[in-house]
Amino acid sequence: MSDQVEAAMRSEAPQMRADKHVSLQTVERLSAYRRVLEELDRDGVEYIHSQQFAGLVGVTPAQLRRDLSSFGTFGNISRGYNVYQMGRTMSRIMGTDSTQSVALFGVGDLGRALLSYRGFEERGFHIAVAFDVDQDKVGRVFAGRRCYALEELATVLPEYEVRMAVLASRPEGLQALADRVAAAGVHAILNFVPKRVTPPEGCFVENTDISAKLEKLSFLAHAQATV
Amino acid sequence: MSDQVEAAMRSEAPQMRADKHVSLQTVERLSAYRRVLEELDRDGVEYIHSQQFAGLVGVTPAQLRRDLSSFGTFGNISRGYNVYQMGRTMSRIMGTDSTQSVALFGVGDLGRALLSYRGFEERGFHIAVAFDVDQDKVGRVFAGRRCYALEELATVLPEYEVRMAVLASRPEGLQALADRVAAAGVHAILNFVPKRVTPPEGCFVENTDISAKLEKLSFLAHAQATV
DNA sequence: GCCTCACTGTGAATAGAATCACAGTTGCAG
DNA sequence: CTGCAACTGTGATTCTATTCACAGTGAGGC
Ligand SMILES: NC(=O)c1ccc[n+]([C@@H]2O[C@H](COP(=O)([O-])OP(=O)(O)OC[C@H]3O[C@@H](n4cnc5c(N)ncnc54)[C@H](O)[C@@H]3O)[C@@H](O)[C@H]2O)c1
Ligand SMILES: NC(=O)c1ccc[n+]([C@@H]2O[C@H](COP(=O)([O-])OP(=O)(O)OC[C@H]3O[C@@H](n4cnc5c(N)ncnc54)[C@H](O)[C@@H]3O)[C@@H](O)[C@H]2O)c1
Predict the structure, then answer these.
(1) Into how many domains does chain B fold?
(2) Of A123, A175, B73, B223, which one has the greatest count of Cβ atoms within 10 A?
(3) B85: domain CATH number?
(4) Do B7 and B74 belong together in one domain?
């Protein structure tokens, strides 16, 4: 093997780590890293140092390096990080390097907005199918995606190879819905319904409570006003 | 003052604290606490202990007590917490005991879903007005709310006494938009656009990145699969 | 080929959040 | 009125995340 090839391998191929513990907070920053890497790649940047990279993402360089180090070693000491290479690696780590099918539950106002959103495809997610309890909606096609009745869940989900689910239904029966979805083989649920869901066995649940965000902001704005 | 009255005051009136430091994580749990208190109140529960309360919210009793203690003392040692009283106090702490006006920027699919959502009013927020750059949308009324051109921002926001803003526009010019909004007197921004915003001076920014949530879930589901 | 410079990856130190554990209180039973 | 049982609020502790700081390294200049 020539020195060039060897050197290239050393500097280009990230040493991924089949590692132990990765903090949840690190995971949350990962998508921000990937987004910045994508922009840099579009701008034709080949290498970037932790200092500038961190500046673009809005974290400290130390934190960036620490986060990355929990997945392996990526950086070339003098040149910094290879933008393209590392973007690919991030996608691989997050499992978004190939498109995954997602199912939507609840084709209301929010559900339809999600269905017509293009951004998910760019990030490796495809809402392949929708479900609703409303008989007026079942059988119809929304933004190209068919809406099924909840009863068809167990047969339809495997058919579309659905790995993740988004809940935009109603608070009533939310836990039961989550349990059914998990039982049908879904291992990750994104929940928009403002009600607590106890994660079913073997299934991750992530909540997005928009009102809660507003409340947090309200508190902060208020608190500052009184200081 | 009779003993009864004195006892009642001691047990019912929360001792609020004009306190020092409140952790951000505590603030985020506050809305969950309030939601549960509301449900309990609807169910006619008068008092509840930290143990059961924590169970309903999904935190440990110790954490609940610690969180509450950073705002003052609420609990009656033997009877627990007064559900109604504490619900009111939570609202007051978060500044949601009276309705606040919110402005929406970007009347696209997501913006319209937010406009027709009833849940915000229940939580003390009222989207009073909308803005868009699209001339087809300016002047129209969406779910009862008028859509203005961005240029009218400086005059319209004070008119509606807007305290907070929601951004559901596009990535282009996002920072400039945030800066303008903040300059018009808004101190808190909820941003749905997947692009980093540097908080303008004196303004809090909270981001909700739905794709990032999916990416996090994808990572978790993947990671578990390989364990 | 060697030297220099500035960068990464990571132990050590610090800051911060969650949990433990209990002193002190209070409602209530008798 | 007294004693008991059980709860809160909080100091002390543990656990986790972030930042510091530097040894070791590689690219590029000469
Ligand atoms: N619209 C928003 O902007 C917004 C904002 C924050 C939170 N949310 C939450 O997101 C959820 C959806 O909001 P929305 O405005 O689209 O509500 P919506 O009432 O317009 O739509 C809900 C849809 O879910 C369906 N549904 C009800 N139970 C179901 C079940 N068990 N399985 C499948 N489908 C079911 C209904 O038939 C309806 O079509 C609500 O829980 C709401 O609180 C919405
Ligand atoms: N729709 C979704 O489900 C979804 C999900 C996640 C994130 N988002 C993000 O939310 C934002 C809105 O999504 P959408 O689907 O409604 O997009 P959209 O393209 O349907 O609507 C965007 C609206 O914002 C307006 N706009 C653009 N620039 C503006 C500005 N500077 N000031 C005011 N208005 C402006 C446009 O005219 C348009 O009406 C996007 O940035 C998108 O990435 C949307």
Answers:
(1) 2
(2) A123
(3) 1.10.10.10
(4) yes
Q: What is the rounded distance in angstroms from the CA atom of residue B173 to the CA atom of residue B171?
A: 6
Cα(B78)–Cα(B60) distance, integer angstroms = 19
CA dist A51 → A44, A47, A56, A61, A62 (Å)? 18, 12, 9, 5, 9
Q: Cα–Cα distances in Å, from A175 out to A180, A195, B4, B53?
A: 9, 9, 44, 18
Which of A112, A208, A219 minimises the CB distance to B208?
A: A208
Q: Which residues line ligand 2 (CB under 6 A)?
A: A 113-114, 117, 119; B 105-111, 131-134, 137, 150, 168-171, 173, 177, 192-194, 210
Count of CB contacts below 8 A, A vs B?
A: 175
Higher pLDDT among residues A1 and B180, named by residue: B180
pTM above 0.90, yes or no: yes
Of B120, B206, B223, the CB nearest to A211: B120
Give the separation between CA A69 and CA A84, rounded to whole angstroms.
18
Distance from CA of B139 to the nearest CA of A (A): 22
Q: What is the pLDDT of residues A33-78, one digit of tens each?
A: 999 999 999 999 999 999 999 999 999 999 999 999 998 888 888 8
Q: Domain containing A128: what range?
A: 100-212
Task: Please report whether residue B226 resides in a domain.
Answer: no
Separation CA A90–CA B211 (nearest Å)? 14
How far apart CA B210 and CA B217 sit, in angstroms, is: 11
